[in-house]
Write a structure and sequence with these properties.
With about 300 residues, this protein is an alpha+beta fold. The chain has one domain (about 5-60, about 130-300). Helices cover about 25% and strands about 30% of the residues. Strands 1, 6, 8, 9, 10, 13 and 14 form a seven-stranded mixed β-sheet that branches. A three-stranded antiparallel β-sheet has the order 2-3-7. Helix 1 (about 45-60) crosses helix 6. About 35% of the residues are buried.
């Protein structure tokens, strides 16, 4: 699937649905990130990068930022960036300086910040990632969060022999839109290659589809777009506003519970594709209704993952 167009300046739009889950909980409260004014849920760039890194880790690809104990250097309990760099030095003894960091696919994609000082002639410096996602990505539909009570089977304390009762809020249904960018200038510095981008697109799709944690398992990838510009100086305004959803069956946006309750509106996306600023729009979906909309449109190219 790899081709040279993958490293042209481009933007990514990725849609996936969540049903009675918590797409992105706040790390301090555990509650779903939520915009009270727009009533839309929010998914952070950190959550999306975590999906991608976890997929790479499971597939045995070298990554820099890990959550497991494999960061430990073997010289005590040291963890984090310093330990990870020491491990990389052992695994790649003949590679020096920033080329060592570039052995990790997540550094080539998202950049990396080293904390370990290297030899004077091979100093490690921060690498800016050519692939970035919006810090917070709002859902396409408005959502009314639902409170959920649950009990634990383990005692909450030594004095309490019974399980405890807790409450949390879940998202009944949301269509989450993730917006990203690929910068070819930064790609030259990070060492990003076309096959890396293809691997990332596959990781994005598969990781969301196959997440199996309690809060993330009920999610499905719907549509992946890579909007490739005709040259590196072009940019389309409001790329994240090109896709809308229209409720049907007399549903409100808050009342949507499945794809049967709404239709996608791709009219703005199809119209903007006619612009000279856009070279092509690559797309992937496993839904025939969506594929049929794009397959006969100029500049839309179906890809495989």
């Amino acid at each position: 699937m790899a081709n040279e167009t993958a490293l042209q300046k481009s933007e990514i739009i990725f849609l996936y649905e969540s049903l009675y889950s918590i797409p992105n909980g706040d790390p301090f409260t555990g509650e779903q990130r939520y915009d009270e004014e727009t009533k839309k849920i929010l998914v952070s760039d950190v959550r999306i990068k975590r999906f991608i890194r976890d997929y790479f880790n499971e597939k045995g690809k070298e990554i820099y930022v890990r959550l497991d104990r494999s960061n430990v250097s073997g010289t005590g309990s040291e963890t984090g960036s310093s330990a990870r760099i020491k491990t990389l030095k052992k695994d790649y003894p003949d590679i020096k300086g920033n080329d060592l960091l570039k052995e990790c696919i997540d550094v080539r994609l998202f950049g990396g910040v080293p904390t370990e000082k290297d030899e004077k002639d091979n100093k490690l410096t921060s690498i800016t990632g050519p692939v970035q996602f919006a810090i917070l990505n709002p859902s396409l539909n408005r959502v009314d969060l639902r409170m959920h009570q649950n009990t634990t089977v383990f005692p909450s304390s030594m004095k309490n022999e019974q399980g405890s009762i807790g409450t949390t809020t879940v998202v009944p249904y949301s269509v989450n839109q993730i917006h990203g960018w690929i910068n070819p200038y930064s790609a030259k510095n990070s060492g990003l290659k076309a096959p890396d981008v293809e691997d990332m697109l596959k990781a994005l799709w598969e990781s969301v589809n196959n997440a199996n944690t309690r809060t993330k398992s009920n999610q499905n990838s719907l549509l992946l777009l890579q909007i490739i510009y005709s040259n590196e100086d072009k940019k389309i305004y409001g790329t994240d506003q090109l896709i809308k959803i229209n409720p049907k069956n007399n549903k409100s946006e808050e009342g949507i519970r499945s794809m049967e309750d709404f239709e996608f509106d791709f009219n703005k996306l199809i119209e903007i594709s006619k612009s000279d600023a856009i070279n092509t729009i690559r797309f992937y979906s496993e839904l025939s209704d969506i594929k049929n909309i794009f397959n006969n449109k100029t500049k839309f190219t179906e890809i495989t993952l």
